[in-house]
Amino acid sequence: MLETKVPGAAAFAKFMTVLQAVADAPQPPTAASLARSCGYPRPTVYRIVAALAEQGMVAETGGAYRLGPRLMSLASRAWSQFDLRAALAPDLQALRDETGETVHLAVPAGLEMTYIDKLESPGPVRMASRVGASVALHSSAVGKAYLAALDAAARERLLHDLPLTARMPGTVTSLPELRALLDLAATRGYATDDEENEPGIVCYGVALCDAAGRPVAGVSVSTLLFRRRDDPQAAYIEPLLRLRDAAAAKLAVLPVSPGGA
């Protein structure tokens, strides 16, 4: 085992070794067989599998262990996001090429949206966003588009818990004002971020819905204010709406809806 200075890494490595042994076993292993295959004392393995079971990472049946429901749920979400990125890759590329601006693909994660793909603008100035980063629902174009596409009850549940933090002077922090903006976004099919997260950056976003009409992701086009086109409707919004409509058929056949509020 590699030495590490990260606190807790050695203990975590033992947990992962046991979990991997459960996954690799041809038949659900017992704690005794896990101790033999992993080379750990039985009391150590018993403590590890008990902790893993408590967290839903493994499940015990008749003294043997198999992968648990929480781990399977995490795996299915990861595969769904991978499928989503792969399915939309040509459309995102075409959107970036047509607009000449940075394109983001994001999925809901609690009270935020998380970027799972980013296509950089070919221009000389790059944005600081990255895959894996999160943006607030109330201040981002993808977040507001996602909220606007939810049914009324689901939207209100999220709005009730949202911390309406002022990230920039223009960030909307009033719930009635945010509701009005979401109603407008729902009517016209897209949302905007007008320097609400970062100075000098304007974004346009749409929600992508599954076969049941539930929003599962968002796509945005982000441009620098100084180079924004004179006609944003034609330059950014119409290409986004075309992508949204084209993506509907692809999302309808994905096995599991990614993300979730």
What does this structure look like?
It is a single chain. The chain is of the alpha+beta class. The protein has two domains: 9-67, Arc Repressor Mutant, subunit A; 77-252, 2-Layer Sandwich (Beta-Lactamase), CATH 3.30.450. It is 46% helix and 19% strand. It contains eight helices and eight strands. Strands 5-4-3-8-7-6 form a six-stranded antiparallel β-sheet. A hairpin with a 6-residue loop joins strand 6 (191-194) and strand 7 (201-209). Helix 4 (69-99) runs antiparallel to helix 8 (232-251) and helix 5 packs across helix 7. The chain is elongated and about 70 Å long. The relative contact order is 0.12. Residues 256-261 have low confidence and may be disordered.
- Order of the strands making up the biggest sheet: 5-4-3-8-7-6
CATH superfamily of the largest domain: GAF domain
Q: Indicate how many domains the architecture comprises.
A: 2
CATH topology of the largest domain: Beta-Lactamase
Cα-to-Cα separation, first versus last residue: 38 Å
Organism: Achromobacter xylosoxidans (strain A8)
GO molecular function: DNA binding; DNA-binding transcription factor activity
Protein name: Bacterial transcriptional regulator family protein 5
Keywords: DNA-binding, Transcription, Transcription regulation
